[in-house]
């Protein structure tokens, strides 16, 4: 048993997602029961589920804003899991954050903020420098 606290936290805490596997399985089941179209649920379909939690509307609005990560007005399976995760936390009297902590961003959504679903990312897998995101013509 080592007493060094450095060994406890894995070096890549980034990859850890706050939604646990068994939670995700449950949320996926709810997601499928809402009959997603092209793998997406519209706000109209998600709203009754959120309302069901009996949480205040301002909390639910924040949950939606945080979980609709690509801001397309729809939730995919991962975004829906984030929404449900936040709702369950709120029901346990935890406050809903005003900004999504990195641990809650689904791995599928990380470092891809400006890529829309269905678009083919042309960026290399490693995170590009900020400048290359602006489509400036190359010199020469």
From TrEMBL:
Coiled coil: none annotated. GO terms for biological process: endocytosis; endosomal transport. It holds the Pfam family EH. GO terms for cellular component: cytoplasm; plasma membrane. Keywords: Calcium, Metal-binding. Residues 95-140 are annotated as: Disordered. This is EP15R factor. It comes from Hypocryptadius cinnamomeus. The gene is Eps15l1.
